[in-house]
Amino acid sequence: MTSSTIASDTATDPRLLWAPQAWVNGRWQAQVVLQIDAHGHWAAVTPGQPCPPHATALPGPVMPSLVDAHSHAFQRAFVGMAERRDSAHDDFWSWRDRMYGVALRITPAQLRAVAAHLYAELLQGGYTQVCEFHYLHHAPDGRAYTGPDGAATMARALADAAQDAGIGLTLLPVLYERAGFTQPALRDDQRRFALDAAGVLALRRQVAAWRLPRVNAGVAVHSLRAARPASLHALHNGLHQGLHNGLHKMLHDGLADVDGPIHIHAAEQTAEVDDCIAATGLRPIEWLARHASLDARWQLVHATHSTPAEIDAVARSGAGVVLCPGTEANLGDGLCDLPGWLAAGVPLSVGSDSQVTRNWPDELRWLEYGQRLALRRRNVAAEPRLPVAQAATAARLFERLRAGGATACGHTAWGLQAGARADLLLVDVADDALRGLPLSHLLDGVVFAAPRQPFAAVMVAGRWVDTAGRAALAARAAEALQALHATD
Q1: Residue 77 lies in a domain
Q2: Structural domain tally of the chain?
Q3: Which residues, 6 or more positions from 31, have their beta carbon under 8 angstroms from its beta carbon?
């Protein structure tokens, strides 16, 4: 069954749903009534109820979506273009230099086309909100755009793409001002990225002023190597000033404090760690814990190379960590200390980053399998001391990422619970990989049985995502990609 057939029955109330099974409070529960309020949030989620008259009876199990907490949408145009090596050595830094070629050419119209296609893919992959770590600010020559949206032209292309696809969007304009710890400015091939703290805050205000459905804004710092400490502190202080000036009145219902979120790349590469030590005497996460006033607003993206002391410091601060296992594997970044982050209780979320993977079941599988290969153990993320339904590998990871994703995107709640946005996934139990699995192992199957398409339909803010336009979005993206790669 598709979303269009679910929504087409006029004899039922589309705001009153009934599911035979639903993932509620960290476990599968039976006969669940889900009520949607006038603002597209869950008014009530009640298990153990017969199907009410006029309710829309869903044809299978439903579960929460996840937040894609770290995305560079323009890099979808580079997927598959860097899987060859023409020299003795290839690593993150050589990949980055090749990726800049796409970053220097892509136009606002091409970005909208590529991003809309990506966002439709993310919806298929079980994400209903994406945090866009946005540093592609200026025209190819490095000058600010003119026109109706001015310096926000590329940000508006992303927001329009999210509207085209029907996904929620958290835009994170990025502070980016130098090429490295010892560099006074950006490299020439980074000229589109330049933005100081004042520019970040202005762009954030402009995004909020658009008042687009399902769009909110935070801020980001590219990395410690790319931002001076004084600029980082200026951004931090500017956020507080924005709060005092009443910017919170411009945000949508259901969003967290206007003072967050704040994202930053941290300790993705060993070379970055070494350079930070040479420049500051501290490791990147260590420096942030000591000098950045970390709190629950902060999201450290990757945090691949950490020490136990750094993990403890992050846990004490309340900051979260965004893991991107598909990208980290593709780029050869290394493996995070997943057991350490889990044991410390640090909020975790997951991101598609460079877009080499675009669904969360793949990300969770990569996350666990990397640990198994490194430690030569199985079910590394499982915790037998938890309640049975939450002890399994898939369940423990999913629940941690569900909760952490809410904070990462600036929402106060996420999942099938009253007050959260009314997003859900209809699991396709007819997929060959899931046929015959008992309900108690269905989430395990979604993650580890590698179903071709585990979700039959997706709801965002109380509305089923219309899949009819997906082919048109893909066609526009293909046209944009052909133009981008015409000379490659």
Answers
A1: yes
A2: 2
A3: 18, 19, 20, 47, 48, 49, 50, 51
Residue numbers in the chain where pLDDT is lower than 50: 1, 244, 246-258
State the pLDDT at residue 2.
55
pLDDT digits (tens, 9 = 90+) for 416-464: 999 999 999 999 999 999 999 999 999 999 999 999 999 999 999 999 9
Per DSSP bridges, beta strands 455-460 and 424-427 are antiparallel
Q: Which token pair is 359?
A: 């669904």
Three-state SS for 306-357 is CCHHHHHHHHHHCCEEEECHHHHHHCCCCCCCHHHHHHHCCCEEECCECCCC
- CB of 351 closer than 8 Å to CB of 324: yes
Token output for 451? 């179903």
pLDDT of residue 462: 97
Partners of 324 in the beta sheet?
none
For residue 262, give its domain range: 66-408
Instruction: Please report where in the chains the tokens 């529960």 appear, as a residue.
Output: 29
| Domain termination residue (choose one: 354, 374, 408) | 408
- Which residues lie closer than 8 Å to 292 by C-beta, 6 or more apart? 232, 236, 298
Q: What is the CATH number of the domain that holds 375?
A: 3.20.20.140
Give the model's pLDDT for residue 376: 97
Q: What is residue 135's three-state secondary structure?
A: coil
Using H for helix, E for strand and C for coil, what is the string for 88-106?
Answer: CCCCHHHHHHHHHHHHCCC
Q: Which residues pair with 219 in a beta bridge?
A: 262
Is there a single domain that holds both residue 57 and residue 109? no
- List the catalytic residues: 302, 353
- Measured over all CA atoms, what is the biggest interatomic distance in the chain, rounded to whole angstroms? 68
Do 118 and 254 lie in a common domain?
yes
Q: Are residues 55 and 77 in the same domain?
A: no
pLDDT digits (tens, 9 = 90+) for 235-252: 988 887 755 454 444 344
**Residue 462, SS3 per DSSP:** coil
Exposed, middle or buried by CB within 10 Å (0-12, 13-18, 19+), for 417? Answer: middle
Q: CATH number, domain at 453? A: 2.30.40.10
Residue with tokens 């404090």: 257
d(CA 459, CA 468): 14
**Same domain as 176, residue 36:** no
CA distance 251 to 39: 14
Residue 38 CB partners (closer than 8 Å, separation 6+): none
pLDDT given for residue 370 in this prediction: 97
